[in-house]
Amino acid sequence: MKSDRPDLALTIATLVRSAGPVTPIETTTIRLTRWVVASTGLMALSVLVAGIRPDVAARIVDAWFLARGAAAFAIVLAAATVAFATSVPGREPSAAVRALAPAACLAWGAMLITAIAATQSPLDQMLHVPFHPSCVALITAAGVPPGALLVRMLRRAAPLQARLTAAATALASLASGALAAQFVCADDGAAHHLVWHFAPVVLLTIVSVVPGSSLFGGSLRRSA
Amino acid sequence: MRRAQQGEEEAYAELLVLLTAATRSYVRLRLAAPVPWIDDVVQETLIAVHQARHTFDGRKPLAPWFYAIARNRFVDVLRREQRVREREVVHDVWPERAGITHESGSTVDIDAVRLALAQLPARQREIVEAIKLRDESVREIASRLRMTVTAVKVTAHRGYRTLRRLLGVDLREE
User: Fold this and answer.
1) How many domains does chain B have?
2) Residues of chain B contacting residue A20, judged by C-beta atoms under 8 Å apart
3) Would the CB atoms of A20 and B7 count as touching at under 8 Å?
4) Which of A158, A211, B131, B144 has the fewest beta carbons under 10 Å from its own?
């Protein structure tokens, strides 16, 4: 009669037999840098495909445009840092580092709300936001290539916290999409950005956590 | 670990034996009473260490890397055991332990099957487990994984082929 418990000697023998040399993965910083560089290229490609806004030369020196871009880029960096850090066992980010991406999101939202509140009729601004779902589609589409690349790079490592990794990945990807969308969408209104850029990034991130975690949940699991 | 990463079998075997003891100690320290599934945690930890060994940075200490994996596997097994207990199911989550019958009449140890499954790529493993262990239909799997039926079949065939190679047996396809 066989025991109901695993045969550890056999486990070790099998693992040793199947273990060839492995190349250690690069540090989080190197992988993050590579992803940012590659994603910047992918975002630029998305912008070119979608059609760059005609007034971009004037906009890129505008403080309001730069502030929104900086907020989105800060989210991209913070979320991707968390995603890469969680993909290596024992190198999980501290609570402070984890808080950076949500904090950057809050800063982005607060910046837009402050800009709306500073107008003479904030309520009117919100009530008359033009219907612009194409921005959501653009953000999603432009976020897919960097997101796919990020997922691929993370799955090569060993993420242990599937939901956190999925949330960080989704946020980094969608914020990349929002950054790219800024160079396509010609509406710089704060209310428009709050409703059609900021809100979709936050909501789609939340929605994609559970399905996204299935991409990372099985990396070190023997069975579901 | 660095030597194991370079493919030195002897060093790797020594390391896994050490990690076996370390995992047992880790689990015992976290439980008030002895449990029968301690070796399940050890086995899953060893497999996870094997799958993640390329993520170890030789310039850093081994302990944080290893205990992060051990903690993850411990919590996973603990939750699984609690679920099993809640359902009052006395068997393991794997439906049977009788082994798989080879054409010659011999049997294959289910542990060897588990290990071989663990070495499959994630998608192949998911599909083989779904078909062979959870009795899901190819159509159900295709729908769940958003694949075509053909793609599921092809992936399953690849998984069977790899399993055959690893186990040296014929897993008859249903």
Assistant:
1) 2
2) 7
3) yes
4) A211
